[in-house]
Amino acid sequence: MNQKFRQIACCLLLGMLVVIGYQKVLYSQTTSFTYQGRLSSGGSPANGSYDFQFTLWDSLTNGTQQPPTPVTITNTAVIVTNGVFSVVLDFGGDVAFPGGDRFLETAVRPNGGGSFTTLSPRQQLTSNPYAIRSVTAANATQLGGINANQYVLTTDPRLNGTPGPTGATGATGATGAAGATGATGATGSTGSAGLNGSTGPTGATGSTGATGSPVNFQGTWSNLTTYGLGDTVFFNGSSYISLSSGNVGNTPTSGAPWAVLAQKGSTGSTGATGGTGATGQTGSTGQTGATGATGATGQTGSTGATGATGQTGQTGQTGATGSTGAAGQTGPTGPTGATGATGAVSTSFFDLLAQFANTGASPVFFSPALTLSNNGNATIAFSNSNVLLAANSCTMANLRVSALETTTGAGGNNTATITLFKNGAATTLTCSLTVTNSVNATSSCSDTSNSVSINAADQLSVRLSETNVAPIIRYATTMRCN
Q1: 421: which residues sit within 8 A by CB, 6+ positions away?
Q2: Beta strands in 359-441 (DSSP E)
Q3: Would you call 150 helix, strand, or coil by DSSP?
């Protein structure tokens, strides 16, 4: 039986009401009889389907099971409604009930619920309005229980004599033995629970746990550094602690042997743009140099002879122009004006820096390294992808590109175009330059008139397209996002 039914069974009270309609037609009786009982669970009438086992005994406790050849009756799936159930039992006739006291023992369990629980006490079976008729008592019924040799035939001449006087009344018979003690009444309901006892004293404080490993801050994580147990590093805005010694080459975000010590907080909103610094005063204009002397006038050609009157003669050739006089010396340069005051520095910007060489294909994309500046402080470099995620919202401008040819190639000069791409699409920030096909040839271009709005997490990349991919040329690009 499961634990739940043990808890129920220990509180079961069985008050059995024996007596329920025996068969009244004498010749249709059998040795079975109807038994009705009441089953309680936890002080309340039981409901549901139960299995019952019944055995017959000759004593309230201990004793011998009856009849001599014991009979155990099992009734399964008996319906109990509001505590009441009814079953038909048959232990046999006069073999089981020879006239002595008989007690019924009941065991119960939920239908199909494991082992049976025996209920206590046993219930005594008392007399009924109609005793079970013995199948061997036919003659006793017909003769009124008197021996047959005490009867005479109706033709016996002794029946015709004069009746004798009435005999004297016989003495009163001795008082019969006291009847058996009635069955014990059902157990009363459980009393209400007593008050809770007072709270016991607080237990002694447990011993202090072992001291954890020391934390040693090692600065920004490097894949070349070997970290020991308890070493702490800074990586991508979060702090991580090493869980083992000999920890080298394991990216902190990969999990073991690292554990997060402090998670990077979300990016704060962009601060207000600093005001533009005042424009410095324009330096004074230098003095104009002296005008050089005018060169001498060339000689005038001789006048041609006057032609005869009539047809106009051909115009003579124009005389040669005289040589230009030597240029006068340049006047000295005027003094440089004083430098204007530097405008206030904005504290919210970052630079995009990209350095790369062409790969023999066009176009090709490069991932810019991100220099995140705040008054010239911390930098974070991304070099494992062709796309960079913008750190915050800003306006990208001031594209500047320089180029240096390191190795010549066939096909002549090379015209290159560098363009900023945002989220996979070209922006207006672009410039073009032409590099002469010779070693150490240089060229540069810039775009200071266009700008592009950038949002945090935008994907940024630099596209290079060339007209001649044969020469090997190194490029350097810079952009600033304010």
Answers
A1: 365, 427, 460, 461, 462, 463
A2: 364-366, 369-373, 388-389, 394-407, 414-422, 425-435
A3: helix
What single DSSP character describes residue 309? S
Those residues whose C-beta lies under 8 Å from the C-beta of residue 8, and which sit 6 or more positions away, are 41, 42
pTM exceeds 0.90, yes or no: no
Closest CA to 20 of 42, 44, 40, 36: 36
Give, in order, the Cα–Cα distances in Å from 143 to each of 29, 98, 130, 132, 246: 20, 21, 19, 19, 113
Our CA dihedral for 40, 43, 44, 50, rounded to 10 degrees, sits at -30
Q: Bridge-partner residues for 420, per DSSP? A: 462
The predicted-structure confidence for 64-120, as pLDDT tens digits, reads as follows 999 989 999 999 999 999 999 999 999 988 888 888 899 999 999 999 888 999 999
CA distances from residue 269 to 53, 266, 372, 377, 455 in whole angstroms, order as listed: 80, 9, 16, 19, 12
Kind plus residue range of the DSSP H or E element containing 84: strand 84-89
Task: State the greatest distance between any 2 C-alpha atoms of the chain, in Å, as a whole number.
Answer: 225
Region at 150 (left for phi over 0; alpha for psi -120 to 50; beta for the rest): alpha
Q: Which helix (H) or strand (E) holds 437?
A: none
Whole-number Å distance between alpha carbons of 374 and 382: 18
The amino acid that residue 63 corresponds to is: G
Q: Which amino acid is at 269?
A: S
